[in-house]
Specification:
oxidoreductase, globular, FAD/NAD-bd_sf, alpha+beta, 9 helices, 8-stranded mixed sheet, binds flavin-adenine dinucleotide, single chain, 20 strands
Length: about 375
């Protein structure tokens, strides 16, 4: 049998890869998408019903132009797919005035002229009574922050890509890839494929598939927790309750969502960092009573009504670079290979714009988007 041949092969049909497949197919490319699990699965990083989106980006103001573009593309993806993917609830970024969460959000807002308000503790309590800020807590409120639906977004990308002719193969793990002067070769358990170029979006499997990239990445086990709020869900409904990120004791950020899916859905909360190092094929997916108790205790003094009955938990994985900025670039060792990885727990909101950038890079080797921060060759402080 002749070897199947494509314009572009995309490895990994999670958030980033599904978006790349869609954008490449929309530009007329013959695309093959390969995924080791099923469509919109729950074993990587793009599941759990909700993701935060925001523009006043405390991590670095360099993300803001990409955020402005990603919002446009989220709206386009909603229109093209007919699916409800983004809900703007507003967002509260809380902590001491000099914390990364507050000061960093303020810096991005001021530098880019984003609409925002700064609230003191009394104002937070008055407008959002479920929160119990301490005397030193302040908040930046951003009306354009909100919620994304990760599984629906991945499904939307996959459906649109397939409609545009992309071949999508699930339950087909890639075992090896290589690149030469004429193209790329990708071997799975069932076949070997050729293409002109390759896009690799492997999520937590990056240390395995991109070992020669020269970027040390750490995979972290993270847990998303759902609780039934004490006293009913009314104060936590999305028209009254914003998403929040709250920085407490040094380095601790807890974040949460309104009650999205009715009384049985509950409110989702999690810690932003603090994950334990894991292996994507050996991760402990059970939820431990002591971690439920720990986050409930943390909420008790801050959002006490949220720490009601524990409903369920779900593990997920971060793939962290040393400086927690992404890697999105041409592979430094192979000009026919483009990579997107190391999203360090904050990549989902960028799914549409990363798909656009990957299509640019795979087809022309360059992009007009500002991605210098994501260069794998940058100095990465630990
Ligand atoms: C608990 C949690 C909360 C988060 N909250 C937010 C948030 O609020 N806002 C935000 O913006 N971001 C958030 N993130 C981060 C965001 O979800 C991730 O950055 C994003 O989903 C990463 O997408 P990805 O495509 O890189 O990874 P994935 O979606 O995991 O996709 C990688 C895919 O590659 C496939 N793959 C790997 N190896 C192979 C192989 N050999 N062959 C075939 N297929 C392969 C995997 O099976 C997987 O489907 C959160 C992440 C977690 C875990």
């Amino acid at each position: 049998m002749a070897m199947e041949s494509y314009d572009v092969i995309v490895i990994g049909m999670g958030g980033m890869g599904s978006s790349a497949a869609y954008h490449l197919a929309a530009r007329g490319q013959r695309v093959l998408g390969l995924e080791q699990f099923g469509p919109a699965h729950d074993k990587g990083a793009s599941h759990g019903g909700s993701r935060i989106t925001r523009q006043s980006y405390f991590e670095d103001p360099a993300y803001v132009p990409l955020l402005l573009r990603t919002y446009e593309l989220w709206e386009k993806l909603e229109r093209d797919s007919g699916r409800d993917l983004m809900t703007l609830t507003g967002g509260l970024f809380m902590g001491p005035a000099d914390s990364l969460t507050v000061a960093g959000s303020r810096r991005s807002s001021e530098q880019w002229g984003l609409t925002h308000e700064v609230l003191d503790a009394a104002e937070i309590r008055r407008r959002f009574p479920v929160f119990r800020p301490g005397p030193d807590d302040v908040a930046l409120f951003e009306a354009k922050a909100g919620i994304l639906r990760p599984e629906a977004a991945v499904e939307a990308n996959l459906t649109l890509a397939a409609r545009l002719g992309a071949q999508l193969r699930f339950h087909e793990p890639v075992e090896a890839w290589s690149a030469d002067g004429d193209g790329v070769t990708v071997r799975t358990g069932v076949a070997t494929y050729r293409a002109g170029s390759l896009v690799i979006c492997p999520g937590a499997w990056a240390p395995r598939l991109l070992a020669d990239l020269g970027v040390p990445m750490t995979v972290e086990r993270q847990v998303q927790f759902w609780f039934a709020p004490e006293g009913g869900i009314e104060p936590f409904l999305p028209d009254r309750q914003p998403i929040f990120i709250w920085e407490g004791p040094p380095g601790t950020q807890v974040y949460g969502f309104p009650a999205l899916d009715g009384p049985d859905g509950g409110v989702k909360v999690a810690f932003f960092r603090r994950g334990e190092v894991t292996d994507p094929d050996a991760i402990d997916r059970s939820i431990r009573p002591e971690e439920v108790a720990f986050i409930a205790e943390h909420l008790r003094t801050r959002v006490p009504a949220a720490a009601g009955r524990f409903l369920r938990g779900k593990t997920c994985m971060y793939t962290n670079t040393p400086d927690e900025h992404f890697v999105v670039a041409r592979h430094p060792g192979h000009e026919r290979v483009t990579v997107a990885c190391g999203f360090s727990g904050h990549g989902f909101k960028f799914v549409p714009v990363v798909g656009e950038i990957l299509a640019d890079l795979a087809l022309t080797g360059a992009t007009s988007h500002p991605i210098a921060l994501f260069d794998p060759g940058r100095p990465m402080r630990g």
